[in-house]
Each structure stands twice: as C-alpha cells, then as structure tokens.
Amino acid sequence: MSKLKTKLIVGMVVFVLAILAMTLSVYAANENVSNVKVVKMGSDYIVYIKECQKEAFKFAFLSELTDPLVWRDSEEDSKGNWIIYIDSDIIDEYFDAGDPVYLWVEKSGGTLILDEEEFFLSDFIDMVEISAVEKITQIIKVTPKTEVIKTEVIDGATYLESVGKLVITNPPGTYEFQIKDLTNPDYARFFALAEIISQDFKGYNTMFAKLEVLQEFIQLNKKLFEGLNAADWKLAVDEQIYQPENIKYVVWIRNTSGTLVDVQFMYPFEDNQRITDQELVETRLPVMGEDDTLLIVLGGLIVAIGIMSVVVIRLSKKEKTGK
Questions:
Q1: What ranges do the domains of the chain cover?
Q2: Per CATH, the architecture of 35-123 is what?
Q3: C-alpha span between 176 and 164 (Å, rounded)
Q4: How far apart are CA 55 and CA 76, in angstroms?
Q5: Which of 38, 171, 241, 270 could disulfide-link to 124, CB 3.0 to 4.6 Å?
Q6: For residue 254, what is the enclosing H or E element?
Q7: 147, HSE (Cβ side, Cα atoms, 13 Å)
Q8: Do residues 148 and 164 touch, judged by C-beta distance below 8 A?
Q9: pTM of the shown model
Q10: Residue-wise pLDDT tens digits, 65-80
C-alpha cells in the first residue's frame, strides 16, 4: 500500500498584538461603498475610484449643495493609477465643519461616474494596518520540518510516512497555539487571501482590487483572532506544533505572556509521492528551510501596491513648484 509523504509549506502573517486590537473602520451602508476606496496616510487621504483607475478624471466636493461645483483634476502615481489626493487644504475647505460632504466624479467626455454621492472621509483603510500586514515573519520565527515516523520499500522505491510540524526558533520563550482546519468558510477565505497577497496579488491587477483583498484580510484576521476560545490554547511542547492530518491548516501562535501573536498557513504534501519525486509549489520566494520547504512571505507589500509612490510624486511636485 502506498504511503503518504507529507510536505509542509508555511506562510507566516505576523501581527503585533496592538494592531490586532485595532478596529477597522466600518464602511457606511450607501451605494458608493463598492465604488470608492480611501487610504489614510498620516493626515492625508488617497481616494481610488473603481471606474477611473487607469484614466484621468475630474472631481468636485461640496458641503453646501447650493454652491457651484469647483472641478479639480485627478493625480497620477508611478503605477499609473489616477487618484483623488485629499490634503489639508481640501480637508479645511470641506470636511472640518462636520457637515455631510458630497462627491462628483466626471470622466473625459463628460460622463458622470458619481453624481452627488455622499462621501465619508471616515471610511478608510489606514496605512498603519497595511504596514502591520507587511511585518510578517519578523515577530515569532518558525522552521517548517517533516518528521519521519515510518519508511517502506515497495518495488525498489522508498516511501516515507511523515508528519509535518512547525518548530518555533525565535524569540526564546514559551508558546501556545491553536490549529484550525478550513471547514469554517471564514478560515478557507482567510487562507485564500493570504495566498493572493503572498503571490503579489496575482490576478488582481488594479489598486482597487488589491485594496479590497487587503481590507477583507485585515477584517478576517481580527474577527478570527477575537473568536478564538481562551480554553483552546495548547502548550507547544519543546516549541513544536504538529500537523494533525495531511490537510491545510491555519495555526495561531502566541507567547504565554500574550505580547506576541502570529498566524501561520500550513500546506499538505500530495499523496503517494516517492522520496525522489520532490514537487515544489510555485512561489515568488526562494527555497528556504529543509525538506524542500517553501515559506510564503507577505513582505514587500507596500512596494507591491505602490501607495507610497503617490506621496513621493507629490513631494517632488511641491519642491519644483514651491506650492
């Protein structure tokens, strides 16, 4: 009988406990939610319009509907995304009074994309939250390994019956874990989103789509972590966590003082693989660890989505114009 050979692939998404405790701003229930994404960067905001990402447009804000529209031009970042950049001047003019603010967006040729839509500056994804996603693998480090529990030779080929495990390597301490399979749809989606982000958003070609993925990932991370049962934490004996079955798992890890929290994503090896038939999962990362194991890392996220380039371009323009 063929034996199972386990291959473990681990992707680590690390969140500082303080970030996990943050409340993601909830989008208001209005027609405009699916068409607009707002990113908060310090005191400024970047607005992405779903239907105007790759072409210039004009926009106007009003806090008093009786006032005439003052059209402004969108701006382009180094990734070719056209955006609304809300700086202190726009905030002072329209948002400081606390009154409802309305948004118009017009494409070239005069086509209105948004027409007197109420706009909520408080509905944003904070760059602090995005930066927290990028800190993966830097808090609690683990090494994925396989532990052989039985070998068998069949027709001259050696088969291994192995079990996958995580070995916590740094920082020193005592750790607890909870391991979850993907039977819960939220965990299945959480796992899938981690894969999308780790592959540089492959298949998600617009900034708007990438921000949708990030927002959902951040929300699920918070929801799932807060939904963990306190009584289900188990001690990681000898800093090792074993894979119960040859299936995908999400593994939460924390130190016993509760100051560090990680979440790992474990993959199974395919059934009936000979020891000489090492089949690697495609990834943008080099092979790391042992047993041909790959680590999926979400680092480089800020560069990948290119949001910071918006600020760099605006600063460069200000230096040239003195405005």
A1: 9-20+132-305, 35-123
A2: Sandwich (2.60)
A3: 18
A4: 9
A5: 38
A6: strand 249-255
A7: 12
A8: no
A9: 0.75
A10: 888 999 999 998 777 8
